[in-house]
Design goal:
The complex is a heterotetramer, with two copies of chain A and two copies of chain B. By secondary structure, chain A is of the alpha/beta class. In chain A, strands 1-2-3-4 form a four-stranded parallel β-sheet. In chain A, β3, α3 and β4 form a beta-alpha-beta unit. The radius of gyration of chain A is 12 Å and the shape is globular. In chain B, β4 and β5 form a beta hairpin. By secondary structure, chain B is of the alpha+beta class. In chain B, strands 1-2-3-5-4 form a five-stranded antiparallel β-sheet, covered by helices on one side. Chain B is globular, with a radius of gyration of 15 Å. Helices cover 29% and strands 25% of the residues of chain B. The chains are: A alpha/beta, B alpha+beta. Chains in contact: A-B, B-C, C-D. Chains B and C meet through β1, α1 and β2 of B and β1, α1 and β2 of C. β1 of chain B pairs antiparallel with β1 of chain C, so a sheet runs across the interface. The complex binds adenosine-5'-diphosphate (2 copies). The site of one adenosine-5'-diphosphate has 15 residues of chain C, from α2 and α3.
Chain lengths: 109, 153, 153, 109
């Protein structure tokens, strides 16, 4: 699920809850349209309680679309469970990973 | 679910922790994840290993929903969670067309693409995941086994 | 658990969320609580109402374990969780001696003592909790119903 | 389950996890022996994730034993779930309830 407070940087997407087979289709759409709109994107995972292969697949697809355009997609505040799944998928070295939003936004500039 | 009484232990020294039956739909998987985590913890697995086991079982259910029943609404999944003194056994029974195990190919490691992660996670996390003959020859019975930490082999 | 396929919806417009089957033992209740919570949330109940519903179902299972099977090891419990558009239905099937509903007396309100809280919680939390005829006349079938918040009646 | 760090007040019992049909028998024993040993007791519920009628029954029994002896039993850091269960049982006015250990220990003196 996607949760974007109005007062937030437009190129930050905050996911929340379980990113599983039920919710991945919605997350995929939000990520792809945000990448197309914003270029480089930061995906904040602090409120993600669970992520599975379908959730990881959304992130990978959005990353590929971003990079094909010369942009990038960074992950922010990755939970323990999500980090373990990224490591299992050997994707922890593929995505730029930032401890928090400040780190992400300053790395960008 | 039959009304037959008597159980708790069953074949081959396996003790039944619980069984669940649910429609093969994406919105039911969250109902099973909590029970699966608690069952893994009950077997002595660490919190993070229990979360990995939940992931493996969830991925196997997803494959049944997406590839087995292909979204057909009437499909159902039976999950049986059992243990011996040495291992957790998770069995998934479905009534979808019979799967050719050779058709399940996890992705290559260095291949960054969106799909084919599910069967890869299952193999990485569990000690084994094999199709067994189903009781009546219809559908599939996938058995996944995870040895307990500190078990002798 | 029978191998019969086909389900998802069943009698009287009730949609099946999940079923669980487990040995009637104190250490199995935690396996069911997480699923029960997620099912209540799925019906739109708030987090705290979902926790209350978990408590009511847990108490009813405890009564089956303690008073029904009286700790006998081989007993089992079948839990069916269903919904209509208006209410959550929880059914508990056991194979213990038939219960006389009149024997279940919750404690008096102002009576501070250690026991008899379980049936009181069930009545406080659920809209109804009634014994139904069991499918084959053996054991018990307790049906608990909780109307959804915002349902019309 | 009972969890008592060595460096803690002897009349404070810290419960943790699910106080349910599985764990209540052990909790009951710990509470009753602590009441008999210490007199007035504080039961810290901060780490209690779930409590049911069997857990509440242990607390009520220990309270009664304490009061029969002229002592008391106070509850400390009661979680939302536990408070709801106490309220359902109309016991929220029967137990002394303290926000935290400091409040409990200063109320005592
Ligand atoms: N239960 C199943 N029934 C039929 N085919 C399956 C099943 N599980 C896996 N497969 C096949 O194995 C392939 C790999 O599965 P998986 O690694 O989970 O990736 P994905 O589901 O993303 O395709 C699937 O694309 C499918 O062809
Ligand atoms: N499933 C059951 N089978 C037989 N007797 C029951 C059952 N449920 C409740 N009872 C009876 O109702 C009484 C009240 O139950 P309850 O309020 O849960 O309190 P407690 O379990 O502490 O006695 C029990 O003591 C028991 O005699």
């Amino acid at each position: 699920m996607v949760n974007n407070p109005a007062n937030q940087e437009p190129n930050v997407i905050r996911l929340k809850g379980d990113i599983d087979l039920e919710h991945s289709p919605g997350v995929r759409k939000s990520l792809l349209s945000a990448v197309q709109r914003e270029g480089t994107l930061f995906v904040d995972l602090s409120d993600v309680t669970y992520i599975d292969s379908s959730g990881i697949a959304c992130l990978v697809e959005a990353l590929q679309v971003a990079r094909a355009d010369g942009s990038d997609l960074g992950l922010v505040s990755v939970s323990m469970q999500a980090m373990r799944v990224l490591e299992l998928a050997r994707l922890d070295m593929v995505f730029p990973i930032h401890d928090d939003l400040d780190a992400a936004l300053s790395a960008k500039t | 679910m039959s009304d037959a009484p008597a159980m708790g232990t069953c074949d081959e020294g396996l003790e039944m922790l619980f069984e669940a039956r649910f429609p093969a739909r994406a919105d039911r998987l969250k109902l099973v994840r909590g029970s699966m985590w608690a069952a893994a913890r009950m077997c002595g697995f660490s919190d993070s290993m229990a979360q990995n086991i939940v992931l493996a079982v969830d991925e196997a259910c997803q494959n049944i929903i997406v590839h087995g029943y292909k979204g057909r609404e009437k499909g159902e999944i039976l999950l049986s969670v059992l243990r011996t003194s040495e291992a957790l056994h998770v069995r998934l029974r479905d009534f979808a067309p019979i799967v050719d195990p050779k058709s399940i190919r996890p992705r290559a490691l260095d291949d960054v693409k969106p799909g084919k992660l599910g069967s890869y996670f299952i193999r990485e996390i569990m000690d084994s995941a094999d199709y067994q003959p189903s009781p009546d020859g219809t559908g599939n019975l996938l058995e996944m086994i995870k040895r307990m930490e500190g078990a002798p082999w």
